[in-house]
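Morning run. Coffee first, then this:
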Amino acid sequence: MPPTLHRLPTSAIDGRSPTLTAEPSRRPEPDTASTSAAVPAPSAPERLRVVGWPDPVIDKLGYDPRSLYVELFWLGVLGPTSTWLMRRLAAGLEERPHGFDLQVDVMARALGLGGRSGRHSPFQRALARCVNFDLAIRPESTTFAVRRRVPPLPRRHLMRLPVAVQESHRRWMAAAHRGPTLDEVRKRARRLALHLLDSGEAAQSVELELMRFGVHPAIAHEVTIWATGSFKDENGAAHHAPSATNAGEVAGR
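And here it is:
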């Protein structure tokens, strides 16, 4: 019987070592136990303690967050949500100067942001913008310290606004620098506010009327509170403005 011939591998014929092929690796099965036990990301606090952020320079030279200046010039930089938030916080600190507790969900809904929570919610982004633009700080996760006055818009932010708004800002600042002293403006504004109230003007319209007469928005807001008897002294006792008949005596106080 002839011998049986066996086919040799090519590698054995030409002297090369046989090629080894590895099986494709399989994807490891997920560990369902560890996945279900994953720790969720920390959530944002449900309540914030809002306090004032004192600054002797800005508190003297800055603008009320509810003023026309902020609406005309800061709004385009800060954005509408953060601007409205600053207005609400300013009103809260005016009523409670030592600070107040803010329910995050309630304020978010009041600003039209819905009930979404979490660190990346629209309301938390509005808080972050206030911090990024140096209008507030967060010394702790549950504390929000906010400026009572907004500083004049820095040049680097002003240059982001349309040319027409930049020119309007230039005229605004020029008028503020060449105007009368602060005490003179306040005295005249108080007399005018009392006259408006005596003439039957609604208290809600006094501030706008003062600004139409050229009174600086911050002074108009301050004088309106004084004239309508809404301001309070250091002890928290309410006062009422005198009538226009003796306005000349009290307007200079």
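The mean pLDDT is 78. Good start to the day.
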